[in-house]
Amino acid sequence: MRPNGVSQSKLFRAVVVLALLAALAFWNPSPLGSLFRGVFHTLALPFEKVFSSGAYAFRDFRESVSSIGNLKGENERLTEENLRLKAENASLSFLRDENDAIRKASGLEIRTRFDLEAAEVVAGGGEGGRGSVIIDKGSLQGVRDGMPAVVGEGVLVGIVTETYPGSARVTLVTGSDSALGGVVVGNGAQGVVRGDRNLGIVLGNVPQASPLSQGDRVVTSGVGVRLPAGLLVGTVDSVRDAGDRLFKEGTIVSPADFSSLRFLFLVRSEKDS
Amino acid sequence: MKSQTVRVIVSILFVVTGGSFLSIAFRSPSWFPFALCAVATSLSLSNGFAKALPVVVALGILADIAIAGRIGVLAFFMVGSAYAAGFFSRRFAVERGIGLYVFAGSVTGLTVAFFRLFSSVFFGMSPAAASIPGGWTTMIASVFGGIVVFPVVSVGLRRLSEWIAYFDPAGTYR
Q1: I need a surface site. Which of A105, A117, B12, B62 has the fewest CB within 10 A?
Q2: Could you write out the DSSP letters of every residue in A138-171?
Q3: Cα B16 from Cα A124, distance rounded (Å)
Q4: Residue A266's beta-bridge partner residues?
């Protein structure tokens, strides 16, 4: 039987330590955190590259193994889909010109429009494992805070928020700390694109009078942070009232798969047209 | 002294491996928080909460630095896991066998569930705290995850202790 004082002492110690850690987390001292992370990731970068390469190889192998059982069904599904797409292709060909015009208007010609720097994710991270990632390019390679990170044809996935000599932290658009200006393509409705608990993306602060509906495409507005306009954020999936009767908000589905990010492109600067 | 150095190096390697391997290979859901909370629970059960506390705090802060989260968040939940393990093990008198693994795994899993569900709400000041999607599913899946991960981590820590005892027969560090 333990004396009661021992338990109380443990409880007191636990409460004090928890309170100190909570205060530290709330305070979130960016310069201090940045300094420690800079030292850590500079020293650990070679190991991170080795481990992340192994992780990608392992992930590919795991996905290959898990897909073997589905091959027959997948083959049948693809055959049917191929036939359906052939028919659809014929009916959609006349929309090609219009689509090209929209892509140019939306600024989605990413490689011709921007000077890009390729980078590889070497560590996952953030609260819940989804808020941010560490990439293998840093200030020595010309990476600066505020640079947008994109994948594919200009799909915004995050913004560089901390730079270290050989690596950098990219806060994903799904991250709780992420907030940037967004605009709906076509009708010009503006709002704030913010991360939703590291799980999804929301276009908030859209005035009730502005049109916003399912299927609308949202791109960056270029307002606020140093972010070029026209980077695709995603498509509006559902619209709801924000609860204050002034604004409404839409859930955005990004075409990027945040759970399997590997290569990103950092937008260094906009090319002269 | 040598054994302390070994422990520090192993801790750093563990955190780097977790951030770069576990977080990428098993990104959704991430297994790294499971491994960290399992270490906290295991240390608390084997060494006692008071002795485990400094190691847990140091490891948690190191992990927060490695995964680029807010410094203190993971450490907060790890300390919670360590205290809960010590507290409830006395109440339930679970000391060995499969029961211990299930108990400790459940504590680990519940802590990770709280971490996944509430860390961004509490520390990120995220709005709509009450409407967390898939809360119960996350809770149940995390408990199962904890029960799977805890034995692996526990055995790993035991092997490390045996190795350090071999490396440091004089028992400078216990």
Answers
A1: A105
A2: -GGGT--TT-EEEETTTEEEEEEEEE-SS-EEEE
A3: 11
A4: A117, A149
pTM of the full structure: 0.75
> What residues have CB less than 8 Å from B164, skipping those under 6 apart?
B3, B6, B7, B173
Question: How close does chain A come to B17, measured CA to CA in Å?
Answer: 6
Q: Does B91 touch chain A (CB under 8 A)?
A: no
Q: What is the ipTM of this complex?
A: 0.77
Q: How many other CB atoms are found less than 10 A from the CB of residue A247?
A: 16
- Give chain A's mean pLDDT: 80
Cβ-based neighbour number of residue A8 at 10 Å = 10
Domain annotation for chain A: domains and CATH numbers: 31-68+106-273 (2.40.10.340), 71-104 (no CATH)
Alpha-carbon distance of B45 to A250, in angstroms, equals 47
Tokens of A142: 């010309």
Asked, for residue B173, whether it belongs to a domain, the answer is no
Residues 161-220 of A with CB under 8 A from B: 162, 169, 176-177, 196-199
